[in-house]
Amino acid sequence: MIQYILLSLHILLISFFTISIILEPVSINADSPIARISPECGILRDHRIDFTVNSFNPNGNVHWEFVNSKGNIDVYGYFETDEFGGFDEYIITDEMRPDTYTLRLFDDQNNDFIKDPNGSEIILNYQIPCDNAIF
């Protein structure tokens, strides 16, 4: 009887540790994402914004959105990441008005406009027009 109880406890402990290991959340990507946006601010007319991004989830989808100062999303889209979690892409902005935007980029594997659990996110500011007189 005691051997049966000890065997049952042993099985319970092994099951507990096995389930604990399986259920532990694991981040897919250890590095923080890096985004380089060019130019760093925009002009009043249509312009191109280049994205050079690394360290999101590999072979996934990154949602991007420009949120205006009133909290509305003016433009958004998706980029596919390569095996290293990066991409080199661009957009043409023809719908954006003068404002200071919040640019959000985040992992969204299933394209539901919601950041994935344990996914990465980058938040940047993007101003249209630029402060300097060149633009």
Low-confidence stretches are 16-29
Percent helix, as a range, is 10-25%
Protein structure class? alpha+beta
What would CATH call the architecture?
Sandwich
User: Taking strands numbered 1, 2, ... along the chain, how are they ordered across the largest sheet?
Assistant: 4-3-6-7
> What best-fitting shape do the alpha-carbon axes yield?
elongated
Q: What Rg is obtained from the alpha carbons, in whole angstroms? A: 22 Å
Helix and strand run? HEEEEEEE
**Strand percentage:** 35-45%
pLDDT averaged over residues: 83
- Which fold name fills CATH's third level, the topology? Immunoglobulin-like
Name of the CATH class: Mainly Beta
Domain module tally = 1
